[in-house]
Amino acid sequence: MKKRLSTSMLCLALFGCQSTGQDYESAELAFNLESYDKVIAQLSEKKKLSDRENFLLAYSFYKNGNGDRAIYVLSTKEILNYDDLYLLSVIYLENGDTERSRSYLDDIKKTQGYSGNNKLAAKVDNLYAVSQCEELGKKQCSERFNALSKKYPTSESIYNNMLLSRFAYKPDDKANFLKIYNSYETGTNDIEYVVLAGIVAGQDEMVIDLLNKKYKDKEKALLIYEDIKYTSLK
To answer: What is the mean pLDDT of the segment spanning 26-41?
Structure first.
């Protein structure tokens, strides 16, 4: 798999929460950004960004493949939120800098939010496991994910984060994929992520059908499917 993983594999990780708040919200971004270029253009013109706008600008740069710019945007903040730290961890993990990636996860682990909320802890622990997979090897990596799935039985982070690692076992389970498929129907995850999840789960026909429904163009749908499959899973 390429060092820079597909952004669609990571979109699930990027949700909002308050910088100093005790309550952690597990919801994904409340909407699908139709045009990251448009978001970047609009927010870049503003002289002062709110905390949330700062994150959305960084997230949009990241989704456009400009992780370095996303890092710069986040560096302008005095206080980094959980979602900021998680995004930074993801970017550095994509770039192969596992040590720095873990340092941001360690920062989250020191917070009250981590110790007081299983959903946040599950996401952090699973991404931490992803960062260790190359060192652990496939067998131990899979065992680690299995252990985490027992520790956090209600979290979907285990399945989601398996998509991040070439060492993780292939989750050839249609039932698990249907949860993610339904998350697209409710607007929780974007279509690229759902397509990738379907490919990993061996549900190629379902995702091609989903693309056909969205674009109403079989040729275009097939091209998008092949692009996601052959560029993200190398």
So the answer is: 57
